[in-house]
């Protein structure tokens, strides 16, 4: 907690030995992140040690039966040299219609995380969303040294600072991935992660709030793979704004990105627009 985090899930690759040290920490819980079939799979509160068989799509579904929450870490590889090829990345389309994945990964970093790997992860994220997948945005520090703890983190709108409440919010997609800025998104008064039902032609109202101690530089609204509006933050520590448009006849999504004055970033999970 010295890193300033409200809650920590401690993971290891091939063991759950970390569970021994957690009972004395009131705001910590366990998980696991094993490699399987060219990707990794993240699990929170798995009932026993997960032993993957090496087939990523099947392992991902098996992990879901074992753990309360499952996600895809570093979906395109990680700094400084691990780059996934197109065949490996294409497996993301075979793990189901709704899942969570890291948009920012902090492996090997101690100051800022967002890099070319994360930029590519965002492009893949938008492609998945445009293809009708529902993909929750996460950030994982991937800290192999203590100095990297808290470098990136997932902000969660949970009812309480306890593992069950946090996992419930993650399951609902009520969260954002961040290096520093705080971010809130509502669409027709519903939070990020929600399905927003709208009759074609009906107004859709989006509202956001972004905050950062160094000041907000910009806020972008991304809808169906396009930046539809950018807002200048002008260095203010709190920026609020909104946008209204007419509901389309086809399903879609909307999400928000924030950049702080020091170029640290945050990404909201999407809200999903569905024709009523």
Provide tags for this entry:
8-stranded mixed sheet, mainly beta, 2 domains, Immunoglobulin-like, TIM Barrel, 276 residues
Structure description:
The chain is mainly beta and 276 residues long. It has 2 domains: 1-179, Alpha-Beta Barrel (TIM Barrel); 181-276, Immunoglobulin-like (Sandwich), CATH 2.60.40.10. The protein has 4 helices and 22 strands. The protein has helices at 56-66, 86-90, 116-130, 163-172, and strands at residues 8-12, 28-32, 35-36, 39-40, 42-44, 69-71, 77-78, 82-83, 98-105, 134-140, 153-156, 175-178, 182-187, 190-191, 195-198, 203-211, 216-223, 226-232, 238-246, 252-260, 265-268, 271-275. Strands 11, 12, 15, 17, 18, 20, 21 and 22 form an 8-stranded mixed sheet that branches. It has a 4-stranded mixed sheet with strand order 1-2-5-6, with helices on both faces. Strands 14-13-16-19 form a 4-stranded antiparallel sheet, with no helix packed on it. A hairpin with a 3-residue loop joins strand 7 (77-78) and strand 8. The longest helix is centred in the middle third of the chain and has 15 residues, at 116-130. The chain is globular and about 50 Å long. It starts with 7 loop residues before the first strand and ends with a strand. The mean pLDDT is 96.
């Amino acid at each position: 907690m010295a890193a300033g985090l409200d809650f920590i899930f401690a993971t290891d690759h091939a063991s759950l030995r970390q569970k021994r040290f957690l009972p004395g920490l009131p705001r910590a819980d366990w998980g696991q992140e094993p490699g399987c079939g060219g990707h990794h799979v993240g699990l929170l509160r798995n009932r026993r040690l997960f032993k993957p068989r090496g087939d990523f799509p099947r392992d991902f579904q098996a992990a879901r039966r074992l753990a309360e929450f499952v996600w895809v870490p570093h979906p395109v590889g990680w700094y400084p040299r691990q780059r996934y090829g197109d065949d490996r990345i294409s497996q993301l389309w075979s793990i189901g219609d709704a899942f969570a994945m890291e948009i920012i990964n902090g492996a090997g970093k101690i100051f800022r995380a967002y890099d070319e790997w994360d930029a590519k992860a965002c492009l893949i994220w938008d492609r998945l969303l445009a293809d009708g997948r529902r993909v929750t945005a996460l950030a994982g520090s991937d800290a192999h040294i203590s100095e990297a703890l808290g470098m990136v983190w997932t902000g969660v709108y949970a009812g309480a600072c306890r593992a069950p409440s946090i996992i419930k919010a993650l399951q609902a997609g009520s969260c954002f991935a961040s290096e520093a800025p705080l971010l809130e998104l509502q669409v027709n008064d519903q939070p990020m992660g929600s399905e927003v039902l709208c009759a074609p032609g009906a107004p859709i109202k989006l509202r956001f709030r972004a905050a950062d101690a160094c000041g907000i530089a910009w806020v972008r609204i991304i809808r169906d793979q396009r930046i539809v509006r950018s807002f200048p933050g002008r260095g203010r520590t709190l920026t609020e704004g909104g946008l209204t448009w007419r509901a389309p006849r086809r399903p879609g999504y909307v999400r928000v990105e924030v950049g702080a004055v020091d170029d640290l970033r945050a990404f909201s999970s999407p809200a999903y627009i569905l024709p009523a």
